Amino acid sequence: xxxxxxxxxxxxxxxxxxxxxxxxxxxxxxxxxxxxxxxxxxxxxxxxxxxxxxxxxxxxxxxxxxxxxxxxxxxxxxxxxxxxxxxxxxxxxxxxxxxxxxxxxxxxxxxxxxxxxxxxxxxxxxxxxxxxxxxxxxxxxxxxxxxxxxxxxxxxxxxxxxxxxxxxxxxxxxxxxxxxxxxxxxxxxxxxxxxxxxxxxxxxxxxxxxxxxxxxxxxxxxxxxxxxxxxxxxxxxxxxxxxxxxxxxxxxxxxxxxxxxxxxxxxxxxxxxxxxxxxxxxxxxxxxxxxxxxxxxxxxxxxxxxxxxxxxxxxxxxxxxxxxxxxxxxxxxxxxxxxxxxxxxxxxxxxxxxxxxxxxxxxxxxxxxxxxxxxxxxxxxxxxxxxxxxxxxxxxxxxxxxxxxxxxxxxxxxxxxxxxxxxxxxxxxxxxxxxxxxxxxxxxxxxxxxxxxxxxxxxxxxxxxxxxxxxxxxxxxxxxxxxxxxxxxxxxxxxxxxxxxxxxxxxxxxxxxxxxxxxxxxxxxxxxxxxxxxxxxxxxxxxxxxxxxxxxxxxxxxxxxxxxxxxxxxxxxxxxxxxxxxxxxxxxxxxxxxxxxxxxxxxxxxxxxxxxxxxxxxxxxxxxxxxxxxxxxxxxxxxxxxxxxxxxxxxxxxxxxxxxxxxxxxxxxxxxxxxxxxxxxxxxxxxxxxxxxxxxxxxxxxxxxxxxxxxxxxxxxxxxxxxxxxxxxxxxxxxxxxxxxxxxxxxxxxxxxxxxxxxxxxxxxxxxxxxxxxxxxxxxxxxxxxxxxxxxxxxxxxxxxxxxxxxxxxxxxxxxxxxxxxxxxxxxxxxxxxxxxxxxxxxxxxxxxxxxxxxxxxxxxxxxxxxxxxxxxxxxxxxxxxxxxxxxxxxxxxxxxxxxxxxxxxxxxxxxxxxxxxxxxxxxxxxxxxxxxxxxxxxxxxxxxxxxxxxxxxxxxx
Length: 958
Fold this sequence. Notes:
CATH class of the largest domain: Alpha Beta
Largest sheet: 8 strands, mixed
Oligomer: single chain
Organism: Micromonospora echinospora
Keywords: ATP-binding, Hydrolase, Membrane, Nucleotide-binding, Transmembrane, Transmembrane helix, Transport
CATH superfamily of the largest domain: Alpha/Beta hydrolase fold, catalytic domain
Number of domains: 5
CATH topology of the largest domain: Rossmann fold
Helix content: 25-40%
Strand order of the largest sheet: 1-2-4-3-7-8-9-10
Number of helices: 23
CATH architecture of the largest domain: 3-Layer(aba) Sandwich
Number of strands: 40
Low-confidence stretches: 1-40, 226-271, 463-473, 953-958
GO molecular function, one term: ATP binding
Structural class: alpha+beta
Region (Disordered): 230-276
Radius of gyration: 40 Å
Protein name: ABC-2 type transport system ATP-binding protein
């Protein structure tokens, strides 16, 4: 098994990448599925008991631990199984890891879970994983496992065992491995390296006594007096959200004849503080509580408190760990950030101990992360245990893996994370670096009195929430300075801890600052990755910024893709809700140093997931179908070309000829029964008809969107069939525009034209954009367009390439009157040089002013066609100007065959239907109505109504 050595950790140059074999990808997915969605898990039995163990500095102090032992079916003295010690997170109990214990037991491991001292129903006080207390408790549990006849042993008293735990449990796994060589492998997750540094961080490398107190997280832990809320329990596959119910059969016996621990009547372990204890301390040990109270009161760590916390830190004993270690850390973690796992990896590797590092997108602030990340962490854990504990799996290797959020799953709308791997762990410094300059003037920033109001950036349990604030409360006016870069010329995949140089001046000589790195999109949206900040405490500062010397700040490690065109924003703030700051008000001056922001990068290859594999299977199926369809279409096209290779001589110079078109659907509905017309060069032809008359169906057949039942369509003499090459000579807008919302108007036009495969020089973009009349808006994303803007862009798209036949369905829909008037002129100009236009519209006045010819369809049939003047001239309507229009209407309604047309803007328009006008006038005069003027009505609307009837309804488009 390759080991992680100091030399390899220090390498910063990129290394060669191995290609992942298909068998490895399949094994990865199979293992992930095997744990995440095991179809039929083997049976197991459980024993719950209170075990009395002896620990403490003397090794003789008794404490009762609430335990559950999971034993897989088939395990016996003759068929022993390896074991796993499964530890919970701070504030949890054995119940919070029950689901994971069941999963591991189902894989053939004996699993022992317990509630750590000071929590739930276990006795004792909380010592924060003290080697004399919690660690020694765990050693006694190893003794208990070794005595079980079903558990495999390496020697007398030495069980074959791995230790898995998250957060508090992860720290225990590291410390136990350092103090007890019986541990065969460990999987510590989202845990700490140095507890003082975790709660008193300082990002310029100063000691923990100079760190900035992380009061938010510390308050959650200590303020709850040992009863921390659920959720502080670990990453995927380790700690869930279940709470201790307090009623799990606490003194329930095991199997007959097996040891059961304490019996009824033993010590009470109610989870309450010991009698006489300080209420401020709860179930914490007195020295731990006193250290917290001192730090919380002063906002700074004294040496005694730092020394106490360091005794509970793996940092002091990493060189003693010989157990192969899989370190899993979350990038959404403001409690124990990535740097803690990095320090653990470096310390353990000194001895040549096998170490593997994996980062995932969750953590204390981000939970389990997406399902894809949970599957990856579960697979790595299973792989590690199977090889190093069970001895049944292949060597896991020492690849470094990480992930980043890739988007939403199209099926369940959940987040999806893409995992990556590289052969060597580069640390938080990355394999390579990208330098980006940030600029801005020196700026004064105020430290608020008492630290209030404070910025909201790093919120315990919800660090990423700050990204939603987008400056509303994230950075308060007057309390922060901004420095920005130019837009990035290319995307940068940041994997690691960026660094930035700052200068600061203070009238007091000291300053507490919070440095942040934002990703700023072109629209101004600023995102602070996972809400992570770098706290800084500086001393010995000059009073003026000119005298200030630059200091390098190491920002928290992140995994983020910063897209091309985005900018970096460095923010230096004076306050943060999660940290303690100086109470005295003052004003600092800050500036950036001469060095650029350094972004670490790592190149890696994607890791297949179950979703990826299924997508490839689905893609293969779709590809097969697509190939079959392509072959089918090619065959049909070849057949059509063989049949229609000739040009119909009668229509060779005619842009469009429709002959006896019929469209009948399977249910017998007839949308078009008999449509027959032509469109000639230079003509603008209006296709008219009431709703449901068959206009849209005719256009759909014309564009090859549906097949006719009977009839033929010819375009310049070529018989029209779906996929016919002659369709390239038609520009169309039918059934509304459709654009890619993330592209601008111009980008949509260019993308459409590229899809045609024709040279860009033939597109005539300038003419199309002039027609669209969108001005500067053509460079905006189309998801911000109004309906009218989208309609104008669609018309411009139809006119790209200046097609010889233009087919438009309701082109003026959404346009205002000036735009409609301009469209009228555009269409009239367009029908020149042999081009022609077919327009379907319900605006009869516009058709009358725009079109040279009209085709009137009613109930699927043509009722009139020809020049607009002829159709209007054939109208029998007459306009009467009379003294009393209302009485005139009543008189004329009584005349046989005469019909007064409705909705004529207050005028009296009459369809005489062959009745002599003189007779109509005489009837009005006899009724005492004065007739001032009688003129023929020459409007297309009147002719249309006369042709289709006032209440005519078509057969209905589909």
